[in-house]
Design goal:
Number of strands: 8
CATH topology: Rossmann fold
Number of helices: 8
Bound molecules: adenosine-5'-diphosphate, magnesium ion
CATH architecture: 3-Layer(aba) Sandwich
Shape: globular
Mean pLDDT: 96
Number of domains: 1
Strand order of the largest sheet: 2-5-1-6-7-8
Helix content: 25-40%
């Protein structure tokens, strides 16, 4: 059984796209997948394309409110960092309970477990803890998602250094082509790769079309979970 944490350099970068592509492809290759979005902000249960709904659909499950609540126990309506949203809703994330939630799912899983973070590597989760603290406590290898916009190189390498500083192993870097990027995806991936240890795969994810078809059109990336 393998467990991976999908993190990113920030919000809106492509984490859910990568998650859903991985879920779909792992399932298609005959694996069972447990997919979690434990902490979600900006959550609207009626939005058919909220992260929890997209993730469930990519696992071949109908996104009922009960199932969304199962994979995303810490839900916040405000589109803010979890720490800010939790303060507004007076419902802080309990790190110990969060780590236990992930581990309990991993204990029951037979093949792959994927958990998507919220925001970027250093997004605040509580008043004094970040996503990085969560990843460190969990100890799962990370799949880092970055972009190809001007400035993305520094963001990806900073995120890598932050992960390394806490002993979080980087399983792969996925460079997700940014919308209207002025920098080439291949050049960005090649430049980033030079600064990473050679064993870490750098995967290019080009722009892919069709709102609902997005994850269906992703190139094969499930091998990064092997
Ligand atoms: N390579 C891509 N091609 C097309 N659309 C993309 C791509 N990467 C991200 N998107 C779109 O950008 C938006 C933000 O991506 P998402 O995966 O939700 O980011 P995150 O989970 O990091 O917040 C979504 O609408 C998603 O479909
Ligand atoms: Mg997301």
């Amino acid at each position: 059984m393998s467990s991976f944490f999908i993190t990113g350099t920030g919000t809106g970068i492509g984490k859910t796209l990568v998650m859903t592509a991985l879920c779909r492809q792992l399932k298609a290759s005959g694996k069972t997948v447990t997919a979690l979005k434990p902490v979600i902000s900006g959550y609207d249960p009626k939005d058919k394309n909220n992260d929890a709904a997209l993730i469930l659909k990519s696992c071949g499950l109908a996104p009922s409110p009960a199932l969304m609540e199962t994979i995303a126990p810490w839900r916040y309506a405000a589109p803010l960092s979890p720490s800010m949203a939790a303060a507004k809703e007076n419902n802080p994330v309990d790190m110990q309970a969060l780590v236990k939630f992930c581990r309990d799912h991993a204990a029951l899983a037979s093949d792959a477990v994927l958990a998507e973070g919220a925001g970027g590597v250093m997004s605040p989760l509580t008043e004094n803890e970040t996503m990085l603290d969560w990843m460190e406590a969990l100890g799962w290898p990370a799949i880092l998602v970055g972009g190809s916009y001007l400035g993305a190189l520094s963001h990806m390498l900073s995120a890598f250094e932050a992960l390394k500083s806490r002993g979080v192993r980087l399983q792969a870097l996925v460079v997700c082509e940014s919308e209207r990027s002025t920098v080439s995806l291949t050049d960005t991936a090649t430049a980033t790769e030079r600064f990473l240890p050679p064993a870490i795969p750098v995967v290019k994810l080009p722009r892919i079309g069709g709102k609902d078809a997005l994850w269906k059109n992703a190139p094969p990336i499930h091998w990064i979970c092997e």
